[in-house]
User: What shape does this take?
Amino acid sequence: MEHHRTTGGPRAAWWVLAAALALAPGCASAAGPRDTLGWMEARGADLMDVFGVRVAFGAGLSAYVRATEYVQLGFVLRGPDQRELPKPEDSRLRSVPCFMVGTIGRYGGAWFDTTRELMFPAWSSRDEDVLNIDRRVIAGYVSPHGRQDNWRGAFGAGVHLVLVGVEAEVFPWEIWDFVAGLVGYDPSGDDVPVGPPSDEDPDRAAES
Assistant: This one.
C-alpha cells in the first residue's frame, strides 16, 4: 500500500480514541449492572496503572533507580518544608515551591510537592511512621501522602537537578491486569470507581 494512502490513519485513530474515552463513563459493564466502572473506563484505568510519568519545576535534588522495593537506591529531596507550602488562602510564598504535573498510576494532575525519601535495597524511608510526603493538589487528584502510590512494585528512575526534575516508572504486573481485563477478568480487583485517593491516617483523623 502506498504511503500517502495511510497518513490519515493515526490522526483518525486518535479521534476515535478520544471519542471513546469521552463516552466511557456512560458505558455499562460487560458483566451487567454492578458497582464498577464502565468497561472502557476500567480498561483506561488499567492502562494508566501500567506507567507513571511526572515532571517537576522548582526546588529539589534527587537521583534514584528502583526495580521493586528489593532493588532500589537513591534519594529524593524535593520542595520546601511542609509548613512552607503555599496554602489556598495565603498566596504569599515563604520559599521556592516545587510544582509537579503528571501521573502516578491511574491518578494524576498538578500539585505542589514536598518529598523526603531515602532508599536502599529492601528499605525505604516511606516505611517509617513519618509524614515524609505532602502534596497540595491544584488539579486532578493524587495520593496526598503517597500511601497509594504502589511504589513497591515499580521499575523506574528519577532525577531532579536544582529546578527541574523528571520521574518515570512502569508496573509490569499491571500489564497482565490490563490484558486480562480485555476478556473480562480483574486479577488486581481494582475495577471500581476511580475516586480521589484517600490515605488519611485513621489515628491522625481521630486525633483531629
User: Anything to note?
Assistant: Strands lie at 51-67, 72-78, 98-104, 107-120, 123-124, 133-141, 155-170. Helices lie at 9-23, 39-48, 172-181, 202-207. Residues 2-7, 16-36, 201-208 have pLDDT under 50 and may be disordered. Residues 63 and 159 are 4 Å apart (CA to CA).
